[in-house]
Amino acid sequence: MKSEFPLLDLCHFNEHTQVIVSRFGVFLKKFKKTTFPRRHDFYHMVLFTEGSGKFSIDYQTYSIKPFQFYFMAPGQIHDWHFEGNIDGYIINFPAQFFQSFLLNANYLDQFYFFNGNVQDCIIQVPEELRWTVVELIEKAILETLGDNKFKNDTVRVLLLLLFMEISNLDGRNRLSFVEPNKNALRQNFEKLIDENYLSLRLPKQYAELLHITPNHLNKLCNEMVGISAGDLIRNRIILEAKRLLINLKLTVTEIAYKLNFEDSSYFCKLFKKQTGMTPNAFRKHHNLHIH
């Protein structure tokens, strides 16, 4: 099915670069006509240093605060609405930017803020770390503007140092480092959900594909993500439902069928249970917000 949101690649912003590191004000002036809401097929980070307003990721809205860092994985939907002067930094790079540099192609998966869970995507940078964070980003900006033969590698190193500094703020990442097998298993489960959520709805079906027991899968999800395997599956279905509900040409019944529900009333009950509102209420609220 076709998404109702534009999926932008890095070429939309600059077809001749592998990475973008920029002051936010400069970036906004250059790409102020970019469509919102939107999705990217690359990693997208925004650090606000001043200003206010609202920032939403996958339909969850937050108030912008100075030195708030937003980390977004490929595919996530985001939107922003600013109040007054806004400034900070923006960083964009595709997954392969680090894959060609590191022996471990999945190295970035070790940082919890890239896991795609919205509650882990937003980090308030404490005062004692702000100078270090800004210095690393400013150095990366200078490298992208220079002609150093190794500038992309230098930017990679600076960004990795930045990610490590941010990750050290929270112990949640440690599990990924000491138990890489568990992390890989969780990632494989989430990839399988993305590929099969229209047809496979039960944890035991995914457990079979992963060659583990349903109990093992559920324990893993609760330990690493904080919710059950069933909730991870249901959350992915509901996220796709939200994306479809923005399209006013589709009825709720048609959306239910697109998501492989035989009974639209069951779809409505599940949606309300997971979100606290009916599909029509969600549609009305978010379309009013967008338009």
UniProtKB/TrEMBL annotation:
Source taxon at top rank? Bacteria
User: Keywords of this protein's UniProt record, alphabetized?
Assistant: DNA-binding, Transcription, Transcription regulation
Keyword set includes Transcription regulation: yes
Instruction: One Pfam family, please name it.
Output: AraC_binding
- Asked whether the keyword Nucleotide-binding is assigned, the reply is no
Q: Where is the HTH araC/xylS-type domain?
A: 187-285
Under the heading PANTHER family, the entry gives: ARAC-FAMILY TRANSCRIPTIONAL REGULATOR (PTHR43280), TRANSCRIPTIONAL REGULATORY PROTEIN (PTHR43280:SF32)
Descriptive protein name: Helix-turn-helix domain-containing protein
Q: Tell me the organism.
A: Mucilaginibacter angelicae
Give the classification, highest ranks: Bacteria, Pseudomonadati, Bacteroidota, Sphingobacteriia, Sphingobacteriales
